[in-house]
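Lecture 7 notes: from sequence to structure.

We start with a single chain of 397 residues. Read the sequence below before looking at the structure.
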Amino acid sequence: MEEQESEKTSNRFRKREKAPTSSFGWRWLFPAFLLAAVTWSVFLLVESGDELLNDQSGETLGAIEDLTAPGFEAFVEQTWSMVIATEDKQGDLVDLVVGAVADSEEGGGSLLIVSPALVTSSNCAQSICDLAVIYGEGGLSSLTAALVDLFNVGFTEEVLLTPTRWTGLVAPVNAVEVTLESPLMEVTDEGIEIVQFAQGDVNIQDERVADFFSSTHYVEPTEQMNLSKSFWKSWLEEIGENGSPREKLPDLGLSVVDFLAVVGAAETGVTTFPIATSESSVMPNLNELESIVVDLFPFPIAAVPGDRLTVRLMNGTGDFSLDSLARKHVISAGAEIVVVGNMETFDFEESKVIYRNPLIAQEVESLGRELGFIVEFDELISPVSEVTVVIGADFLS
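Now the structure, written as tokens:
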């Protein structure tokens, strides 16, 4: 036992043999190669950072910025829209406007005057579907929901203007001038007519704006919308006269102020809601409304999230005069455009709808029929939208 321990001890203190000398390659070439690789990686990282981002302006470099260049693509901004409802001192709906911004940077847009007496559906009685009644029973949220169903698009937001808010809004311009072909009367509960605004050129003071809209409530719906149109058109021209709407709008902390500042900064179209002929009620002309909605909302929000197929709309011809027509065609078919751009080449003869998810094949086929385009499956197509619509040379035909 002692001999074994003695042997272990002697082995323990025995001098170890030296490791063999490393080859020249491992000793010098490998460290040099590793150092060069690390240096090159750092260089590439710095260069790529400088190429992709300009640290002074924050602008992306190397990207395709020419809207007419092959391969250009850009996400679109959904149309900024607003439902603007006005109630009188009694809390009744007396004016209704649906507005949309044409360009959030350059300004301008459109306003659609809607009659509070409009019946949104022919399947129910006027006492239930009249917009004024819907507002009276359910407030602004119910009113907006009815408009969403009617327009089949969603709105960015809705705003209620009370008599007090109107006073603050119009105060910077003192008054809004409107020409009346006949006097505006108010009818009391006893049936007595009281002249609120005389015939001729009338300056509507800020505190009387709500009274003006309330008085139009007693005239025929078509005339009511025309009077509202005159007011809005005159007011927007006034605030946008010097190109700086902010100077003639108050700082009330309301989103409608920001909205009107953008709309009033450039050309603004004001039109009235299309009404179908009816003796008993005010019904919408759905054919005309569909055309108006396409023009009013270049890039509409889906009424129900996910209800519309998302589209990447690509020009495959190089004829950019087709872009606006193609956009309207796709929107009319019930789709939602999220990306616009150009294909890598401009030699596409056939317009087509391309999808990559087999689970939506039935919906895509329906869209293809509505557009009159051929449908193709391609699992490698861009995933930024559910479908890619390519405009070919056959589009106009």
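Residues 48-62 have pLDDT under 50 and may be disordered. Keep this in mind for problem set 3.
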